[in-house]
Amino acid sequence: MFSNRRRRCAPQAVPCFANGSGECGQIIVSLVMMLALVLLAMAGFAVDLTNLWSHRQSAQTAADAACQAGAMDMAATIAGENLPSMGFTPGTSGNCATNSGAGSICFYASANGYAGAGLNNGPSNAVSWTFPASVAGVTAPPSTVTSYPFLKVSITENVPTHFLFAATGSNLHPVSASCTCGLIQEKEAAPMVVLSPSASGAFYYTGGGTLTIVGGPQRSLQVNSTSATAINCSPSGLINTSAGGPKGTGSDVAVAGGPTTAPTQCYGGGFNGGSTGTWHGPVLPIPDPYGSVGPPISVRSLKPASGTSGIQVSHASSLSSAGQDGCPDTKYPCIEMSPGYYPNGITTDGYQTYIFLPGIYYLGASLNAGGSATLRMATPCKPSCSPLSTQVGQQTDGVMFYFYSGSINISGCSGCVSTKDPLIPVQSTALTCDGSAPSSALNMPSTLNGNVLIAQCTANGTYWDTGGDTSDARGNPGVRGLLIYQDHADTTEPIFTGSGSLSFSGALYFHSSSYTDLLSLDGGSSSGTFVIGEIVADQVSLTGSGAINLALNPTPSVDLTKVAMLQ
Fold it and tell me: Taking residues 376-381, what's their average pLDDT?
């Protein structure tokens, strides 16, 4: 029997748009709203994150600027500058909230938008600094230069956010940035440096006083004094660097104070920089290039000599025209000096010629060369040996005079050319470590008369001794190192006067802790004063035709302390 009931089929899904149902539009609107909300949230998060990134970049810029400013103050401080408003003490951590925003670190942070008043429950920021003991991959300068070479400036800011609140539960998000910078040492070709941080006339030249510099780095003279008259000249004084610099076409003068342009009241404007030399000021002072070089303490025990004791070279048949150990006097014997400890200094006598064997001379009083005495280098066993010779002389041999008291004083006619007793001249090639001729721009003659003193050739341009007082070593051929080193507690004035000629190869270093060591050249000594090397002194005075003809070393040989960003 058949049933008249219809069999039901399973209901079929019919798209809402097929039957014109109004529910279809509601679903689409809801979906669009949901997508819009997601996109809006993403846009909000993007705005917040972009804002945070922007604040992070701003904080980093401020930290970099503040750190560099603080490091520059640290460099100026070890260069002797007195900075009463520096706002921080190296080695002591601090922050701008405690310091009321004073000092260079806080000033530069504030100038970049971060006053550093401290963090609170609203938009705010904090600026702080510490002094790390070390920085990975960076070698700190010796403690003799500074005990706290590194500085780290940190900035933290509470930045308002909006959409991130849903994720963090806070409408403030902390952003941090930091910069580590400080002082490092790099080998560079050193300029002539006048170290006094404040003296007026720290470099003074007048009455025909001239400084001529050839070769060396682009900046050939640096005067650290912040006085407006740090460099002071009067008519007929001249600084001539027209043959200075790496290319020999002119080098620069830089002064921390003034004048900020070359003086106009002096001969030729007081400055001749050639085609590439300029006058810079004001500039940042540079620390003492030899500040990390310690004194030769161990030399005291090498030879406890007394006064001017030495051994007179025998005037025997072995004394040829060249003489024993290079004695240049064929008429009279030379006084031959041995390196060692001279507590009473050395004072020359009459017309004698003094020759100095290679090594370190540790003096407790001045080296006085007056009258008609002449100072020369000894050349062991060349052309023949004296009783003092213990080794054969070589091109790299030389001396260093270390004064723990007293200084060098060359006066009268010391180094004059005598017609009655002419000395064998010194070849100018003897002044270089490799035997090459000095720069022709120096106008040094091929042979030299008068006083000729030569420093050791070393690997690092300082000095070396068997006592291991420095880490330097004999050069091969090397660079002429320190010829004269005056102790930092010694304020005796080095003086070069008179009419004799002077030729030095090596660095002349006169620096006292009080910045009062004054290197004076006065009188006729000027015409024959040649220096191949550096001059570092607290103050320099060139008067009465006193002059220096200086050939700077063009190769990186001196540790110069510089400001650097490290991390």
Answer: 92
Does 166 lie in the same domain as 132?
Answer: yes
The H-or-E segment that residue 129 falls in is: strand 124-130
Structure tokens at 479: 């660079």
Token digits of residue 412: 């009268």
CB proximity list for 361: less than 8 A, separation 6 or greater: 337, 339, 340, 342, 346, 367, 399, 400, 401, 402
Within a domain: 74:
yes
Q: Is 230 exposed, middle or buried, given 0-12, 13-18 or 19+ CB atoms closer than 10 A?
A: buried
pLDDT, mean of residues 350-373:
89
Residue 278, φ and ψ in degrees, nearest 5 = -130, 170
Tell me the longest C-alpha to C-alpha distance in the chain: 163
As a whole number of angstroms, the distance between CA 3 and CA 9 comes to 16
Measured from the Cβ of residue 318, the count of other Cβ atoms closer than 10 Å reads 13
3-state secondary structure of 346: strand
Among residues 523, 521, 529, which one has the least CA distance to residue 550? 529
Closest listed residue to residue 520, CA positions, set 484, 502, 500, 544: 544
Same domain, 516 and 442: yes
Query: Same domain, yes or no, for 417 and 273?
Result: no
Positive or negative CA dihedral for 469, 475, 478, 482? Answer: positive
**Direct distance between the N- and C-terminal alpha carbons of the chain, in angstroms, rounded to an integer:** 98
List all residues 6 or more positions away from 354 whose beta carbon is below 8 Å from its beta carbon. 310, 334, 335, 336, 337, 346, 348, 369, 373, 374, 375, 376
Is 353:328 a contact under the CB 8 Å cutoff? yes
Number of domains in the chain: 3
Q: Which helix (H) or strand (E) holds 154?
A: strand 150-160
- Find the radius of gyration of the CA atoms of the chain: 36
- In a domain, residue 11? The reply is no
Same domain for 469 and 548, yes or no, is no
Q: Are 357 and 385 in contact (CB under 8 A)?
A: no
- What is residue 163's predicted lDDT score, i.e. its pLDDT? 62
Residues 299 and 267 in one domain: no
* Distance from C-alpha of 518 to C-alpha of 507, rounded to nearest angstrom: 16
Answer whether residue 566 shows pLDDT above 70.
yes
pLDDT (tens digit, 9 = 90+) per residue, 59-96?
999 999 999 999 999 988 888 888 878 889 999 999 99
